[in-house]
Amino acid sequence: MTKFVLCINNAGYPASLIVGKVYRRLPDPDAEAHDMVRIIDEDKSEPDGYLYPAAMFVPIELPEAAERVLLTANP
Fold it and tell me: What is the DSSP string of 32-52?
């Protein structure tokens, strides 16, 4: 599982998701079994993240330095 995903569709969630933005993905095997992903969205008030349809995102691999910065900026 990649730690980050890129939003490719924010239909229905324009206040929570930005198309083209990288989001931190949290592990959630139950959600993934239902084609959902758990992410930290724009709200950031929920440390456990929110569930969104997996089709709204694509997994991405980032260079190690970029991952460190994003994980530090978005604990």
Answer: HHTTEEEE--SS---TT-EEE
CA distance 30 to 22: 22
SS3 content of the chain, % helix, strand, coil (to 5): 25, 30, 50
Give me the amino acid identity at 18: I
What percent of the chain has pLDDT above 90? 71
Q: In what order do the strands lie in the sheet with 36-39?
A: 50-53, 36-39, 22-26, 4-7, 57-60
How far apart (Å, rounded) are the C-alpha atoms in residues 58 and 45?
Answer: 23
Residue 60, pLDDT above cutoff 90: yes
